[in-house]
Every structure is written in C-alpha cells, then in structure tokens.
Amino acid sequence: MAKLSQEELLAQFENLTLIELSEFVKAFEEKFDVTAAAAVAAAPAGPVAAAEAAEEQDEFDVILTGAGEKKIQVIKVVRELTSLGLKEAKDLVDGAPKPVLEKVAKEAAEKAAESLKGAGASVEVK
C-alpha cells in the first residue's frame, strides 16, 4: 500500500460526511486503543458541548453596554484601559454597546469590568 501524505489524507477526509468521519474516528480509536477527545470538542453539538467550550474559554471580551450617568469618568477609564485618545474613547463610549477590550485573559477582563463598573458604566464580559 502506498503511503499517503498529510495533504492527501486531508483531501480524503474532506469528502466524508460527518457520520462517516465519526465512524472512522471510532474505528481508529478501537484499532489503536486511543481516544480522540480533542476531535470531539472540535465539533460541538448542542448545549452541553457549548457549555463545555465555555468552561475552557481563555480569551474574553469586555463590552461596554452603557455609559451610565458619569460619562466623563467612564471615558477616563476607557482611555486608561485602551490607550485611546480622548476623541476615540468618547466615540467608543457614545457608540455603546461596543467592545472595549477583546481577547484578553480572564483576570484582565474582570479587572477592566470592575474599573468600568466603578466609574458607573454597564459592562458585559463574554
């Protein structure tokens, strides 16, 4: 049997349906006595898989949903968090809901959210 390159194997897998691919993974696991847990997580199917993916999330977005009554204080905090200029920070606050920080660590997202809430803003962390 000729040895297939990685690209040739991927081309073959592209032509399979999800059911055929699932059956292949099961057969592969049985043949080589391994588990393909990462492959299962790559194709979430339903609310349970979505909840598991949320638990593993390591990047978060801090979204400003409203400026509140202390808009100037919120603009100052946005400037501190993002290094934006005054006009850009004001435009971001005026255009809420908008992301302030994207793809940051959980600790940084929580700290930024607390700072914004302390200034009177409405914040959402996703």
What can you tell me about this protein's structure?
The chain has 126 residues and is of the alpha+beta class. The protein has helices spanning 6-14, 18-32, 37-42, 47-55, 71-82, 86-94, 106-118, and strands spanning 60-66, 98-104, 122-125. A 3-stranded antiparallel beta sheet has the order 2-1-3, with helices on one face. Helix 5 (71-82) crosses helix 6. It is elongated. The protein starts with 5 loop residues before the first helix and ends with a strand.
- Strand content is 5-15%
Helix content: 55-70%
Our Rg estimate from Cα atoms comes to 23 Å
- pLDDT average, as an integer? 80
State the secondary-structure class: alpha+beta
Q: Order the strands across the largest sheet as they lie in space.
A: 2-1-3
Largest sheet: 3 strands, antiparallel
**How many extended strands?**
3
Please tally the helical runs, counting DSSP H or I stretches of 4 or more residues: 7
Order of helices and strands: HHHHEHHEHE
- In angstroms, what separates the terminal alpha carbons? 50 Å
Poorly predicted regions are none
Oligomer category: single chain
The outline comes out as: elongated
Short précis:
With 126 residues, the protein is an alpha+beta fold. It contains seven helices and three strands, in the order H-H-H-H-E-H-H-E-H-E.
Question: What labels would you give this structure?
Answer:
alpha+beta; 126 residues; 7 helices
Topology overview:
Blueprint: H1 6-14, H2 18-32, H3 37-42, H4 47-55, E1 60-66, H5 71-82, H6 86-94, E2 98-104, H7 106-118, E3 122-125
Antiparallel strand pairs: 1-2, 1-3
Helix pairs in contact: 5-6
